[in-house]
């Protein structure tokens, strides 16, 4: 079972448009609403793969009630923590060429008591978990050290922690020894305070974060593939993508694939890349099922291409 923690969940509304013109009335050609937030997306991908998952998240108002119902419809056990504020709604506008315009709401502010209630919900549900995936930005009211506290408490309970966040929340948690962190190239560059132009730059940055406490680093490098740096060594993997339809939730699908495959080693990396490649070829924030995966197409190597330039360098 994979337990996910999403401190700032959302309802994600996606509208497909024939074009995006400011100052006009636009009519969508298709629309959908999905449960959202990075940890929630991990749970959705885990459930789509046929595994058990429990999603811990603060939920409030009618939006929170709808989020709980949508999670149940997907076979996800929702461990919602009641809060006074309303769960946020995020909007994504998709143009025919795949260009995405996202509007993300700030979300509710959590009180100290509500923040403690979320930590307690994690404790209650963690005993049966193979992994705890803590994902996304922190809502108003939670200090950057909140994830660090969650990592420390979970380790005391004997749980393994995967952390997917950025900025001060990531750096504050590093010295607590998260078992896996999952930055993208931009987040990796921000964490080490220097630009990344090559895969070798990304490898050095990942090694530096391991030196600061992270036990392993799963780095998403966009179209260039993914890099795994752990105690057993460094591995690099790529997969072909025919056409990108939406990259919303692709990184979350990757983390789900990684953890579902054991959370370490080249086989788990291959699963991560296969899940991410499948996700970007689906509409909105749909998560891939086993039928969408193409594991044989993933190329994994321990011969990391250090001089390979990143298609999207991280400044």
UniProtKB/TrEMBL annotation:
It is an enzyme of class 2 (transferase). It holds the Pfam family PfkB. It comes from the Bacteria. Residues 14-289 form the Carbohydrate kinase PfkB domain. SUPFAM superfamilies: Ribokinase-like. The keyword Aminoacyl-tRNA synthetase does not apply. Its EC number is 2.7.1.56. Belongs to the carbohydrate kinase PfkB family. This is 1-phosphofructokinase.
């Amino acid at each position: 079972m994979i337990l996910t923690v999403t401190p700032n969940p959302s309802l994600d509304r996606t509208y497909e448009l024939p074009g995006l013109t400011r100052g006009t009335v636009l009519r969508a050609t298709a629309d959908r609403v999905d449960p959202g937030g990075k940890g929630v997306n991990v749970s959705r991908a885990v459930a789509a793969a046929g595994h058990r998952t429990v999603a811990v998240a603060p939920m409030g108002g009618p939006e929170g009630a709808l989020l709980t119902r949508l999670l149940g419809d997907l076979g996800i056990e929702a461990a919602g923590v009641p809060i006074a504020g309303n769960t946020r709604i995020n909007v994504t506008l998709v143009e025919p060429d795949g260009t995405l315009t996202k509007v993300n709401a700030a979300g509710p502010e959590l009180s100290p008591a509500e923040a403690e209630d979320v930590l307690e919900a994690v404790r209650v549900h963690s005993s049966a978990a193979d992994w705890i995936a803590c994902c996304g930005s922190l809502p108003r009211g939670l200090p950057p050290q909140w994830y660090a506290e969650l990592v420390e408490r979970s380790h005391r309970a004997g749980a393994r922690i995967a952390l997917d966040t950025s900025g001060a929340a990531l750096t504050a948690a590093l010295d607590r020894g998260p078992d896996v962190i999952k930055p993208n190239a931009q987040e990796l560059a921000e964490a080490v305070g220097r630009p990344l132009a090559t895969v070798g730059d990304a490898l050095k940055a990942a090694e530096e974060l391991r030196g600061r406490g992270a036990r392993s680093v799963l780095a998403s490098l966009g179209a260039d593939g993914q890099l795994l740096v752990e105690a057993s060594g460094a591995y690099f993997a790529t997969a072909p993508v025919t056409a990108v339809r939406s990259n919303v939730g692709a990184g979350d699908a990757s983390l789900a694939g990684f953890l579902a495959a054991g959370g370490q080693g080249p086989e788990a990396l291959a699963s991560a890349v296969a899940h991410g490649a499948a996700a970007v070829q689906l509409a909105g924030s749909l998560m891939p099922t086993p039928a969408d995966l193409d594991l044989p197409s993933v190329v994994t190597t321990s011969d990391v291409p250090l001089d390979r330039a990143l298609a999207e360098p991280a400044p």
